[in-house]
Amino acid sequence: MQGRIILVLISIAIIAFARVAGAEVDREKLLKEPGVYATFAAFKVGDQWSHMDKQAKAGAVEEVKRVFQMHVDKVSVDTHLVRGLSEKADFFLRVHSKEMIDNQNFLVDFMGTSFGKALKNTDTFNGITKALNYVPKFPEDLKAELKTPPPQGSPYVVVVPIRKDAEWWLMSQDARMAMMQEHTGATVLYLKTIKRKLYHSSGLDDLDFITYFETAKLDDFNNLVTALLQVRENRHNKRFGEPILLGTIRPLDEILDIMSR
Amino acid sequence: MQGRIILVLISIAIIAFARVAGAEVDREKLLKEPGVYATFAAFKVGDQWSHMDKQAKAGAVEEVKRVFQMHVDKVSVDTHLVRGLSEKADFFLRVHSKEMIDNQNFLVDFMGTSFGKALKNTDTFNGITKALNYVPKFPEDLKAELKTPPPQGSPYVVVVPIRKDAEWWLMSQDARMAMMQEHTGATVLYLKTIKRKLYHSSGLDDLDFITYFETAKLDDFNNLVTALLQVRENRHNKRFGEPILLGTIRPLDEILDIMSR
Amino acid sequence: MQGRIILVLISIAIIAFARVAGAEVDREKLLKEPGVYATFAAFKVGDQWSHMDKQAKAGAVEEVKRVFQMHVDKVSVDTHLVRGLSEKADFFLRVHSKEMIDNQNFLVDFMGTSFGKALKNTDTFNGITKALNYVPKFPEDLKAELKTPPPQGSPYVVVVPIRKDAEWWLMSQDARMAMMQEHTGATVLYLKTIKRKLYHSSGLDDLDFITYFETAKLDDFNNLVTALLQVRENRHNKRFGEPILLGTIRPLDEILDIMSR
Amino acid sequence: MQGRIILVLISIAIIAFARVAGAEVDREKLLKEPGVYATFAAFKVGDQWSHMDKQAKAGAVEEVKRVFQMHVDKVSVDTHLVRGLSEKADFFLRVHSKEMIDNQNFLVDFMGTSFGKALKNTDTFNGITKALNYVPKFPEDLKAELKTPPPQGSPYVVVVPIRKDAEWWLMSQDARMAMMQEHTGATVLYLKTIKRKLYHSSGLDDLDFITYFETAKLDDFNNLVTALLQVRENRHNKRFGEPILLGTIRPLDEILDIMSR
Amino acid sequence: MQGRIILVLISIAIIAFARVAGAEVDREKLLKEPGVYATFAAFKVGDQWSHMDKQAKAGAVEEVKRVFQMHVDKVSVDTHLVRGLSEKADFFLRVHSKEMIDNQNFLVDFMGTSFGKALKNTDTFNGITKALNYVPKFPEDLKAELKTPPPQGSPYVVVVPIRKDAEWWLMSQDARMAMMQEHTGATVLYLKTIKRKLYHSSGLDDLDFITYFETAKLDDFNNLVTALLQVRENRHNKRFGEPILLGTIRPLDEILDIMSR
User: Which terminus of chain D, N or C, has fewer Cβ atoms within 10 Å?
Assistant: First the structure.
């Protein structure tokens, strides 16, 4: 028992040091810059968790929060509740950092907590952000449209992993750009209500892209995706979703609370 | 033990408040209007449930009923028994509300009960209802046929998730309408014995549509589906079912009773 | 303990009543008539069963037999041992009745026994029998051949679920009939040693047909299937088997005995 | 305890009777003749086995050996270790007999032992041996080559299940023979170092063929398969492996010993 | 307890003998020569491990280290941490030796430790190294480029299993070489930052190739794979990844430590 207390003290010391040595990672910057690594890690809570008693659960929740704190100078973590809207996961974490190994180190520590040990990691998607590929050559009016400020504080989140077919990659850059212009044109109507972010995954995962969306209007989102199914670029989606992760943005505390009932 | 009693009292207080503050959601309206969100959540009962003793089960069943009551002002829930007719699920809930997050909140509470913790969520399908797309342009006689009142009080239910191929979405609206007219023509014979309802899923799930049927005559239903396989639109079904969920409409009490034996 | 005895007495009373009120369902008639519903339910015995003690197992076996007896006026059930010949199941039940809900009610009761709770339902196929579709228009000599009496008392059983492609269903009735005539011609050689039965599944399951075979000569059956692979209709089998269930016909007692060792 | 001793005595009595009544099945003959049924049954050891104590394991091992002995007059069983070389199985049994039900009866008894109950049957492939189909019409020099005696005492074994596409089966016998001659030509170089055996599976499993290989030189085997990928017949392999089972031939005792550590 | 001590002593004796009798296998040589067998074995830690107490875990870790030591004269083993970057595995071992059975014997012993028994083997890929196939006929300037020394001490590792389609294998050697030259040309830019190694798998696994990469720059790796998707040879990849295993190179001690928290 004493060993444990010492361990806790050491942990606190490490956190304190971390907070002094380096400030918190700049989330806003990470979400805008190219060259940032993202890991989407989805989890389901296993049977063993529900067999733990209240006090053990409460302790485990504190342990998770400490792990989040310990990595605050390296990674930025967003938390999303999926339970109820997909059988694939209970929740997922979106982790951003400047080096993939920082994502891994955070997730390894998270999965090493008592709570983490009760989880099943159901899906993990890795990606990297890049400078825009096709947009610089789009017509000026489309470029202007794309400056529409995205919505803030949306409750819903949708993650769509995508894999293109060989024909897509073997097209000329111009042919691909023409198709992406058509694709982008179809999104203009929804720029005000749907925020999107793109990650490149080829080689980092069994995917080519991860597309991430936030919105308050799922009816608009259904219309947007229907519009995107109707452009020629859709012929080259070997995989679109499978799984689509639909969830709601919720603070860590709320997710831990829901899982601990 | 005292903590528990207080918790129960608070729960009752919340329910009472809910019932006063807002009336029950209007099920009939929800089932007719566009812009309504539906979540089909299928479950299988896990091993741990059968190891619980009678009293614990009875308490868990009461807990489930309270959760249903607590959400009665936001969601309408239909219950269906699948066990025996598919290995995919023991039962599924069809949840309707005006906001997807209300479906999620209900299901999260349901899955947080002692009964819910013993369940495995095997499949979840999300959709939204919309105004009719092709029907307004159908010939008048077909439109008249479609006014045939559907059957009431049918025991059987069939859920068929559908995904269309890229060619379907890239066809002109007219070409799609011609095919849907042919499709609809094939259903006329069965309007009197089979009730159907359509949900749009693109972007909300790894599906494009959820089709939901109620009937007392499964032989008619087999004939209807065979007829639908014989129209050209069938060439564009990348996924039809997989899984088809065949079940019977049963009250919550009966399903809980069957699962608790 | 007393509660249990009373329960047993009531159960016996119910069975007695059932046997008086309605006679046993006519198995021979069910196996010949159109409009009969069949459910093939395959099961694997779970770990928990082998941990039960001898007496509990013996009690559970009696419980299963009572469930079979209780439904004897509605459903006819055949039992088949798969263990050893497929990793997909230990055994499967073939259930026939005039209403699908009777199949469900029987299987729900079966799965609610102590033995049933230890089972994993690995596959379920639903179908309906129908009047012959193509045979009436076959040439007279082929029709005469088809009157060959099938073998009786065969030990082996094979179930092959089948799904046709869209092109099959979009062919003209004549084109389909020509192909089915070729298909049927290939079976003539084996009519004496292989008994077959067809169920229609479209809309009732993720299948179009369930084909069921009984034989004492598996070498003939291998030759028959090879012959059927060589007719043009085979081009339109999107799914053929997957899984094929190969087993042996065994009485309920023997299957329960094998599973209870 | 006394009950157990009596059981053992009875078992011994039965074995003794079996050994007297019928001699051991002739393995060499079974491995050469047509019309012999083979079942390849692959298993993984479950968690519960490692929780058993040493003595219980030792008893269970003896039980397995008795089951092998009891069926020695009907089936011939070869044992192969897969663990380490595939995640699909720990070991597999290759069972031969004159009637498929004898394979089943042996495997049912094997799976009914304490060891068997701790196993998960991960894959089962059924086949039948037949007289050579294409070889009789091959040119004389190729036929002469095929008489090369295969290697003996090879340590490695590879099982490759194969399924052909519809086009293969719809080709003329001559076209198929031309392709099989090309296929066979590609194997000549490896006849001295690789032994092969073919089983026909259509209708007995979700396969058309099981190909079984023994070799001491896996580099040669890699070259052989690469050569077979380069003949036209390869275009018609809808499934080749999936899973390939690569293992080593080991006596039953060694496999039981490895699994019991 | 005494039995255990003796066992340990014997083990030590065996190790001592092994170290005397044969020196450690030459890792550098194994990693360069043709005709070397590689087994990539990926594992996930099961629930039972986290239920073991600290002391039992510590003992189990020592047991694993002894197994590594015991095989040091036959196999060379590299260890990689996957947890956090893929849901497919927690870690994987890359095992090299001159005979596949040595890989198997090492892995069987590893999986027979207390730690090994708590693992689930999630994926295993087998391959063999060969002399370069196409490079000798490449133009001199490309051959010169290929002599660029690969990076050393890279933290990231990526394993990509690959399966080619039938058309690839049926092309002429010249046509394949032209495509491989184009493929190789696309890699030149990344030779300085990405190290690669190729294994041939046809017949040894459900794969044709295993490609193994080490890098410190995952952004370069994403660019490399994107470039490889854009050459014609990509049309013939029936499988590319699925799963891609992305991880970091970590010493055995660190991996055991992470898994034992």
Answer: N
Burial B217-254, CB ≥16 within 10 A → b, else e? bbbbbbbbbbbbbbbebbebbeebbebbbbbbbbebee
> Would you call E234 and A169 a contact, using CB atoms and an 8 Å cutoff?
yes
The tally of domains found in chain D comes to 2
Residues of B with Cβ-Cβ distance to C117 under 8 angstroms: 50
What are the two backbone dihedrals, phi and then psi, of residue B248, each rounded to the nearest 5 degrees? -125, 145
A219 with B35: Cβ contact below 8 A: yes
Per-residue pLDDT tens digits for C138-147 = 999 999 999 9
- To the nearest whole Å, the CA of D76 is away from the closest chain C CA by 15
The whole-model pTM stands at 0.92
Distance from C-alpha of A156 to C-alpha of B35, rounded to nearest angstrom: 16
* Known catalytic membership, residue C94: no
Residue A2 in any domain: the answer is no
Mean pLDDT across chain A: 91
Nearest CA-CA distance, residue B12 and chain C, Å:
32
We report the CATH number of the domain holding residue D63 as 3.30.70
One-letter amino acid at D211 equals: T
**Structural domain containing residue A227:** 135-246
Q: State the CATH number of the domain containing residue C148.
A: 3.30.70.3420
- Over chain E, what is the mean pLDDT? 91
What pLDDT shows up at residue B52? Answer: 87
Q: Is residue E191 part of a domain?
A: yes
Confidence of residue B7 (pLDDT cuts 50, 70, 90): very low
**Are B120 and B144 in the same domain?**
no
If asked whether residues B104 and B70 sit together in one domain, one would say yes
Q: For residue D149, what pLDDT is reported?
A: 96
List CB contacts (< 8 A) between D106 and chain C: 84
| CB spacing of A222 vs B206 below 8 angstroms | no
CB of D158 within 8 Å of a chain E CB? The answer is yes
Smallest CA–CA distance, residue B58 to chain A, in Å, is 18
CATH number of the domain bearing residue A83: 3.30.70.1030
Please list every residue in chain C whose beta carbon sits closer than 8 Å to the beta carbon of residue D205.
Answer: 86, 241, 244, 246
Residue of chain B whose alpha carbon sits nearest to that of C121:
B87
- Please list the rounded mean pLDDT of every run of 10 residues in chain D (261 residues): 40 38 80 97 92 90 96 98 98 98 98 96 98 91 96 98 98 96 97 98 98 98 98 98 98 95 84
Q: For residues B142 and B213, state if they share a domain.
A: yes
pLDDT tens digits for range E28-83: 999 999 999 999 999 999 988 888 899 999 999 999 999 999 999 999 999 999 99
B107 has pLDDT over 70: yes
Q: Are A29 and A117 contained in the same domain?
A: yes
Q: Is E48 on the interface with A (CB under 8 A)?
A: no
B169 interaction partners in chain A (CB closer than 8 Å):
226, 229-230, 234
pLDDT (average), residues A207-217: 98
Read off the pLDDT band of A96 (50, 70, 90): very high
> Same domain, yes or no, for C237 and C165?
yes
Q: Which residues of B are catalytic?
A: 196
- Which pLDDT belongs to residue C16? 37
Residues of chain E falling short of pLDDT 50: 1-21
CA atoms within 13 A on the CB side of C202: 18
Q: Are residues D217 and D174 in the same domain?
A: yes
